[in-house]
Structures are given as C-alpha cells and as structure tokens.
Design goal:
Elements: H1 9-19, H2 24-48, H3 57-66
Length: 67
C-alpha cells in the first residue's frame, strides 16, 4: 500500500540509526511492528495484572534450577 507521510527528518534519522535499518521503508515497517508488540505486551500485562510472589532471590534461582 502506498501512503504519503510527513515525518520529521531528525526523528526518521534517529530511528534509522537506533533500529539499524537501511531504508526508510524498512524503518517505518520495523517501527510499526515494534509499536504493535509493545501494545500487545501492555494488553497482556493489563489482563494478567500483577501480584507479589514474595520470593527471595535465592528461592527464585532454586526454582529456576529445578526446571
């Protein structure tokens, strides 16, 4: 799909450098995929909520070693 966007040049240049992409098209595509991934993680976090496991670092390491 072709679309015309007015993107701030400095913003696009920084995104190119930080993402390590070679083209504007690749940069915009990767940025959109990253934005979607962030949104999905945020949605999952909101669905699951948070809770306190009340584990010490040693207990957590022991549990990791058992699997």
């Amino acid at each position: 799909m072709r679309i015309t966007l007015d993107i701030e040049p400095a913003l696009l240049d920084e995104a190119l450098r930080r993402l390590g992409t070679r083209t504007k098209r690749e940069t915009v595509g990767m940025a959109l995929r990253e934005a979607i991934a962030i949104g999905k993680r945020r949605q999952l976090r909101d669905l699951l909520g948070s809770f306190d496991l009340d584990l010490t670092q040693e207990e957590l390491e022991r549990m990791r070693g058992e699997s």
